[in-house]
Amino acid sequence: MSESETPLAALRAAVREHRMPDPPLRRTLLESDDTALARQAGKALKQLTVDGDQPRQVEVALLATCTIGSYEPLLRAQLVGAGFLPTLRAADYGTFGMALATGRLAPEGDPQLVSLLMDAGYFLPGDWHAGDPDALEKHVEARLDEFRAQLAACLEHTAATVVVHTVPLPAQVRDGVISLGARARVGRMWYRVNAALLGLAEEHAQVVAVDLVGELAEAAVPARDARLHRYGDMPHTDGALLLLARLVRRVAQAQLGLSRKVLALDLDNTLWGGVLGEVGAQGVQLGGLYPGNCYLELQRTVHRLREQGVILVLASKNDADAVERALTEHPDMVLRPDAFSARVVNWSAKSGNLRQASEALSLSTESFVFMDDSDFERGQVGGELPEVAVVSAAGDPAHLVDALLRQGWFDVMELTDTDRKRPELYRKRAQRGDFSAGFGSSEEFLRALELSVEIAPANEFTIGRIAQLAARTNQFNLTGIRYDEAATRRMSEDPGHLVLSVSVTDRFGDEGIVGALWVERGPDVWRVLNMVLSCRVLSRGVENAAIGWLAGQAREAGATAVEGRYVRSPKNSVAASFWTDAGFAPVASPDGDSAESAPTDFTVAPATAAAVTPEWIALNTRSGFSDE
């Protein structure tokens, strides 16, 4: 977007040219609180198509207990802002209950997400007696039970993820009860309704619950517009709908692999107040009264993110020795040197330093969030690395934590043990890089790593991590099929399928679950539906060890062939030769593709593939496999 263009003009140009809006324009869509801009942007983007390499696509069904209003364009603007090419399908007015009860959420088939838009009128009676709170409570509880039953019935017929939200209680209901005691009782009843809605996520693996009421409590927007409600059954303002759209967009990010893994942080006027080179470690503002307490709270927040698996990178223009002393010796420092999996402290351009950190961690810069107070540094990184999510630390430090968290860049569907261990895993990865410098060949290095690979069937404790790998792995993702948790669970319980986790340990420690396979087991042919492997263990032979083990199992079961597929994507070229390197032969395409088109299907006799496990890998398997 040029400086002279308005956001809407730039969006319309992108639609005309059949391309995704550029990253700065998408950031505008995500960060703007201007509901008029978001609404118009969403309408303009309805016609968006993209030529060439396709962005991540998402199909969302919208079911509402009321008139949907501007929710569809607001949600579309948010999804495009996150990098999705969305398809939104809104159900007809008045079909909410029927769609839930039958599970027919969209005529075109199962969507990936279902966003429910609910209002208080769905639960409240049309008329009620203010002096009889018992009757009101019984009616609301009955409606809540009815909704739960409809939702449970719906989940029997769909594999989609359903997003529910808490519902604000209208002030006219609350204030229409003049007894203070009875008013408190009505309020307590409504809190129970919202607690039950949030609890649906614990009852059903396919349900995600988001707290719209909590968002409204923090935002300076009204929840309702009485005139629009009475005129057109639109109980929510555009401001409230934009908040809900952001929450649903965050769910899509987490489920479909667009959340981020790495937080790269500046120091001066970001993690502490002041410039270290000017005031020294003893003079920076950290802890105590304002503004030092703001920087302390940011550090505490960042530390909590690290505890949940976010990898921290230090990217600062400073003297490295002075930074080391400050991180080590300042009494109020929360983020000590070992909190960072990589540190790039020098006077070079920060875009280059982020590239250096990404190489050290073997993670794409697409997984990075960069936080800095300098307009220049943010602009330089945004220009050189537009795929990096940029967060401003400028302005009043009281807003630092909100600026970091409000877009939900690090949200995940479920926090796994591997997530919690990730920062330390990547810190050790950097140590492996230093270790490798002392060897004359890569094979010597791999032998010295003392690699052990463990193959295990999916279970209740690993299904979440396996689904997370499917959503977030791009480079070694053979087919691009992203089986979610519900689909992975069904396949793991089906005797005709096999879902496997791949774990790695070496001399530096346990890498955790780094890969997964989804396999269709036939009597004669075992077909690998997809295989994913974390980029942090690429080039060690782990993928060959996994396919070699699988081929051995196929041979023991009496299968005569193992088949696989490779589907090219803009990011998975690293896996293009995997099947042929493992001894598989290409199969002519049944669709009659031209000779210039690379075959995507491969086959091999199990005995041949079983021999591809590298000799420097010790292969372990857990019990629990069955051919029945």
What's the short version?
The protein is of the alpha/beta class and 628 residues long.
List keywords for this structure.
24 helices; single chain; nine-stranded mixed beta sheet; 19 strands; five-stranded parallel beta sheet; 628 residues; 18% strand; globular; alpha/beta
Describe it.
The chain has 628 residues and is an alpha/beta fold. Strands 11, 12, 13, 14, 15, 16, 17, 18 and 19 form a nine-stranded mixed sheet that branches. The chain has a five-stranded parallel sheet with strand order 2-1-3-4-5. α1 runs parallel beside α3 and α6 (133-155) runs parallel beside α8. The longest helix has 24 residues, at 180-203. The protein is globular.
Report the mean per-residue pLDDT as an integer: 89
The total count of helices amounts to 24
Q: End-to-end span in angstroms?
A: 58 Å
- SS-derived structural category: alpha/beta
Name the beta content range: 15-25%
Helix content: 40-55%
Number of strands: 19
Which helices and strands appear, and what pairs or packs with what?
Elements: H1 7-16, H2 23-31, H3 35-44, E1 56-64, H4 71-81, E2 84-90, H5 96-102, E3 113-117, H6 133-155, E4 161-165, H7 171-175, H8 180-203, E5 207-210, H9 212-218, H10 226-232, H11 238-255, E6 262-265, H12 276-279, H13 292-307, E7 311-317, H14 320-329, E8 342-346, H15 350-361, E9 368-372, H16 375-384, E10 389-392, H17 400-405, H18 417-436, H19 442-448, E11 451-457, H20 463-472, E12 476-477, H21 485-493, E13 497-506, E14 509-521, E15 525-533, H22 542-556, E16 561-565, H23 578-581, E17 585-587, E18 601-604, H24 606-609, E19 617-621
